[in-house]
Amino acid sequence: MRTPHLFVPCIVDQLFPETGVAAIRLLRKVGCNPYYDPRQTCCGQPAFNAGYHDDARRVAEHFIEVFGNASEIVSLSGSCAGMVKVFYPQMDLPEVLKEKVHEITSKTYEITDYIVNRLGVTDFDVSYSGRVAYHDSCHIMRELRITEEPRKLLRSVKNLELVELDLADRCCGFGGLFAAKFPEISAAMGEDKLASIQRAEVDLVVGCDNSCLMHLQGLANKKGIELKTKHVIEFLGDLIT
Amino acid sequence: MKSSQFKIRARQAVGDADLRSKIKKATGISLLKREQVVSEIADWEDLRRRAHELRKETVDNIDSYLRRFIESARRNNAIVHEADDHKTANKIIYDIIRRVSAHTVVKSKSMITEELHLNTMLEENGIRVIETDLGEYIVQLAGETPSHITAPALHKSKEDIARLFHEKLNIPYSDDPVKLTAVARERLRDEFLKARVGITGVNFATADTGTLTIVENEANARLCTTLPEVHIAIMSIEKIIPSFDDLPLFLKLLPRSASGQRMTSYVTCINGPRSYHNPDGPRQLHIVILDGGRKQLAKHPAWKEALYCIRCGACMNICPIYQSVGGHAYGSVYPGPIGSVITPTLFNMKDAQDLPFASSLCGACTDICPVKIDLHHHLLFERREIVNRGYKSSVEKIGMVLWRWIMLSPGRLEFAGRVGWFFRKLLGKNMPAPGWTPHRQFPRIPLRSFRSIMRSDKKHGK
Amino acid sequence: MENKLLYRFQSRIQESGGWCEISASGDGISDILNSKYMFEKEKIVISGRVAKELQLSGLPGMCIDEVKPNNRRALLGEAKLGVTFCDGLIAETGTVVLINHPSEPRELSLLPEYHVVIAKQTQLYESLDKCFTKIKQLYPAGSIPSITLVSGPSRTSDIEKTLVIGVHGPVEFGVIIIGSR
After folding, report:
1. Could you give the CA distance from residue C165 to residue C152 in angstroms, rounded to a whole number?
2. Average pLDDT, stretch C42-57?
3. Are A164 and A105 within 8 A, CB to CB?
């Protein structure tokens, strides 16, 4: 039996625990025995993207310590998986950890990528009636080049109508620290995305990064626009109960 | 205008719904046209890779290519001037104009002259500069600077331009682009015929043949390089490409990326002034080559990539930040993603320190760049340099130390989360958070974190 | 193959706002020009290369070779139509390659309101690479004349991205290819 180590990023841990619960349910359903190491905290991305590479490195070292011996690491965020896979190798880590990083990088997966490509599962035999749009978060789309995997999982849901947004490949404006440093620009970008979502007339927007969805949801709530957002995994996990 | 005020200007620009819709419309049209002509090229990715390799080859060996280009250009009877800095370049240009006692110059679009602030310098010295590219003509009449490197008047509506022409050129108000264009044609034709000096930029300079290539649609660059007695071509060192044989590749990438055309209406390849080989054209061809810090930048292992840019402007069109604030907000000569990469590295990192942060790191620019410059990753790594140079506030630095302290312990992370929960519970959905809640509602914080759920599950043997 | 290139060239030119006609022989050129442009003889200026390369006579217009170099610019400034020969046609992009030539000054394709290029079907190249390779073979290094590539009429999209034809250069651009489909 596979024992993937779940990487539950800080935002998912503290704000979206349901995504983690759903991930465990889904992975068990397809015969995995997911393991959660409670020592984990964060991948270091916030500091890294802010330019504080020393601070980021210290947190990354903690991550490497926690996940160093995992056979497989499954991330519940596309962006955080991208941090580990793309940016850990570019960090100024001590020589002794470089080998380890190489190993970690190659065994880290974003969860939809893991389910579809590693486990070969594309169908959970579930059903949902409604129009759903998938939001491509930038890091999963452009750092990891994962676009089809979540869509495959969604298409397998019976009665679900998967709708493509007209601005599908455009950033929602979250961008981590960017959202707080340039809130006006971030909000303007988010409003464009919300308009695109409204044009698509969907019941639900799903994605592989809760942070982008949180930004969009927060904008919609503030403006009084009706919007429902959910992580793809949480959406699927809820359907199999 | 300075890049140091980016935040203020960006905020103003975002608030200007009219400006935003103009920019969005214009960039949208450009992207759509580009997509059509790029999609018909099956090996587009291959072309990008080849172009990247050629740009790398040139920049890595810039001294030797520069020497070869100068030799070839001199063999073509061009007069070549090298300028280490902006001031020297301006002086060289001014002296050439003075030597032929010209009082007026016609000029075609050139970003390098924007970088030199050439027009201001010449006008301060009593020389009239006439911008002849329609977009530049509009911007010059308005007393502004270009807001986009290939579409200078992108920030203006036809009504804005109609008012401008009506006021400045004393013509009846008309917002018909055909009529406005006809006015410019008529006014400028006479200037072309009279002018004794023509100034242009250069798109590509081939080291093996000394050929200057200029890409355009209006024919104003052709007029600037054909009618006056003296042509001054101004280029920065990275305009060089190794060979005349490489030109077709770059001519396949540039017009498609810039204006969504398979080829621009005109491409002029100049191989020297009037001579036995060249029966017509200017009697003198001066080539002014600016370094302006580029040789130094070419030595940087990563940021040298900024010198690969062929100035197509596609990264601006695709950038959601550019689309939201427009080119003027950047306060730099080069706006958009490439501007944010090049301004801090080539000009002034302290003044431009906000620019690399003004990116959601979405990476759309990197994907569209015809020479595969890793734009968004350069922005990311420039941030490190800005922090290392100590330009950031101590409040932010302390914040980062605190963040690190929390993230190095799961217990502290959980505690911080619970503090958040407490305040969210206390203050409700209107809980304030600087930078976040002015535009977005604070998210709900659940009673139990994932780690706490897992802890009790374990206890109950689940 | 050649027909395919011809067809592609023709459609590319049309897509960028120009026109392109095929004439079975050189004799048809006058007919095409006369049917399109009704200008007086002195308003039409023809490159000396057209007559020489195609051994044509009786074209409607004045040959630039008959005009003294010093008077050429003034004449061309007033001319309505400039007719040139060319040095290559690029099918991929609908581009005409003009190499500087004593009997074909640059102003001829630049100052008049209309520019028509006469070409032979045998001058068609698939892509610019192939044409440039040929040019490099023809001229020794250091002696390549200046080259102008023309792919349509003078145009701009500087005002709200609205396409306007005819800014500073010719408002109309056409190509007559001697050949057969």
Report:
1. 9
2. 89
3. no
Q: Which of B407, B413, B452 has the highest number of chain A CBs within 10 A, making it the mutation to test binding with A?
A: B407
Q: Which of C132, C151, C169 faces B222 most closely, judged by CB atoms? A: C169
Residue that the structure tokens 């067809």 belong to: C7
Interface ipTM > 0.90: yes
Q: List the 111-170 stretch of A: residues with Cβ below 8 A of B.
A: 138-139, 142-143, 169-170
Q: Chain B partners of C143 at a C-beta cutoff of 8 Å?
A: 277
User: In this complex, do A143 and B363 lie within 8 Å of one another by their Cβ atoms?
Assistant: yes
Q: What is the per-residue pLDDT across B312-369, written as a single tens digit (0 to 9) for each?
A: 999 999 999 999 999 999 999 999 999 999 999 999 999 999 999 999 999 999 999 9
Tell me how close the Cα of C147 comes to any Cα of chain B, in angstroms: 5
Q: Which two tokens stand for residue B145?
A: 């600077």
Which architecture characterizes domain C2-178 according to CATH?
Answer: 3-Layer(aba) Sandwich (3.40)
Q: Of C92, B311, B227, B402, give the one whose Cα is nearest residue A52.
A: B402
CB B333 within 8 A of CB B2: no
Q: Say which residue the tokens 């057209």 belong to.
A: C50
CB of A43 closer than 8 Å to CB of A80: yes
Strand A204-207 vs strand A229-231: parallel, antiparallel, or unpaired? parallel
Q: Mind listing the pLDDT tens digit for each residue in B258-291? A: 999 999 999 999 999 998 878 889 999 999 999 9
Which residue intervals of chain B bear CATH 3.40.50.10420?
43-295
Tell whether C67 lies on the interface with B, counting CB pairs under 8 A. Answer: no
Tell me the three state secondary structure of residue A128. Answer: strand
- C-alpha dist (Å) from residue A150 to A122, A208, C146: 9, 8, 55
**What residues have CB less than 8 Å from B98, skipping those under 6 apart?**
none
The sign of the CA dihedral A2, A3, A9, A15 is positive
pLDDT category, B67, cuts 50, 70, 90? very high
B104: amino acid identity, one letter = T
Chains in contact with B via at least 3 Cβ–Cβ pairs below 8 Å: A, C
Residue type, C57: S
Q: Does domain B43-295 have CATH number 3.40.50.10420?
A: yes
